[in-house]
Specification:
Blueprint lengths: L12 H33 L17
Length: 62
């Protein structure tokens, strides 16, 4: 994967807040992806769940 690094020039406090918000969102995205991948790996290590003996539940009154 090719990553390009760019320099950001910030002139005002508003721009600092925008850049800080982008950093926070990117960090949150990274943590979410890490959590999802780890969860998926743990799920793949367990055998698939067997369906209940009674099968699918029926609706009463039909």
């Amino acid at each position: 994967m090719l990553m390009l690094l760019r320099t950001v020039v910030v002139r005002t406090m508003d721009e600092i807040f925008i850049v800080a918000g982008i950093i926070v969102l990117r960090a949150a995205q990274t943590l979410l992806l890490h959590w999802e991948i780890k969860s998926e790996e743990q799920d793949s290590n367990h055998p698939p769940r067997q369906p209940d003996a009674g099968g699918s539940p029926r609706q009463e009154g039909n």
